[in-house]
Amino acid sequence: MQLTTWLQLVLGRPFRRAGHRTALVAAGLPLHLAVVPLSLWLAGAMAGAPALTPLPVLLTLVVTPPLTVGQRRRYRALVGKDLPRPAAPGPGRNWTSAVRRLTTRALWRQACYHAVAGPLLAVLGLAVLAVWAAALVAASIYVWIWALPPQWRVTDLGYTTQAAYITAGGLALLFLGPRLTGALVRLETRAAEVLLGPSRTEKLARRVADLAESRAGVLDAADAERRRIERDLHDGAQQRLVSLAVNLGLARATLSDLPADARKVIDEAHREAKEAIVELNNLVRGLHPAVLEDRGLDAALSGVAARLPIPVRVAVDLPQRPSPTVEAVAYFVVSEALTNVVKHAQATRADVTVDRIGETLLVVVADDGAGGADLAAAGGTGLAGLAKRVASVDGTFSCRSPAGGPTVITVELPCAP
Fold first, then answer.
1. In sequence order, which residues have a C-beta less than 8 Å from that of residue 281 and are 6 or more positions away?
2. The pTM of the whole model exceeds 0.85
3. Are residues 366 and 350 in contact, defined by beta-carbon separation less than 8 angstroms?
4. CA-CA 20 to 30 A from 321: which of 2, 65, 123, 206?
5. Is the pLDDT of residue 286 over 60?
6. What is the pLDDT of residue 223?
């Protein structure tokens, strides 16, 4: 059993994908050789007639896109590999668009692949195919000796020792063929990825865009989940607590003949139920206030300011509402900042300004407190949390709080129209 497994690994594995790889090499020869006349013309023009040099270069650039399409189809059909496409230069069919397309780095990298790398790969491909042909002919030399008539034979080998040597050499080439083909396919694939695909800068930009899109999806999903939890608490647990408090209130008002101990228990349960309702209201408001979704930032921030023990001036100037995620971040930043003002700043008043400047939502929270707030300080976990929340939507957070005050928190949130 172990010998059979070893033979499969040694003999079967190299030939498993050799057919597809050899087909890939063979199919690439016409595409690689298509630009050879233009390359020779360009070399001759550079050597003898430099004035004619732009013409073969221009023709090479013209035939590059269809050749690139052919190469992509070759890889997709034979080895199932999709070569990533470089960034498109932009739509348009006028002369400006044509010039822009002819001057892109991606097109010149593709032209370099077809005009320089292509002929070299074609030479290597012909060599690999020649190895396969020689291997097949040499390994089957006894078949040729048996099948061909004597008058058709180039030399009369017969069933001699020399024919055995040729057969052994053919078998060795058959064993070497898949490895040479695999090496050439890896070389071709690497050259195609570098020259026909996007550059490293384009890959990084595309990766950043994909990460930004996925992060936006995660934020939207988290915001939707908060809305769902708020709705479930409001329609489920909160309503049950209200019903419980009403029933306890009715019991306390109508059951006048209860013992003092039972009445005390009902009073205590009624008080606990009302406190639980208040706490649940605060929890729901902290998750996602319904007024924010229904009426926007102006009404939601005005509600926050009205519940604080210090006067707060709220000025919101938004021609149109931002996205729900940005709106929620702005609300929670202002709410948490005002809570910190009440708890730590010893302020007598605060100002909140929300304005939209172009594609940026500007949020400023200022107070006349003692100052000294430090984002990097050990006790500044609240400010650090605000900075992280702002950074989650690619916003910027700054806090200026000198000793003695005032404290000004400035937040800029991207707000695409």
1. 238
2. no
3. yes
4. 206
5. no
6. 64
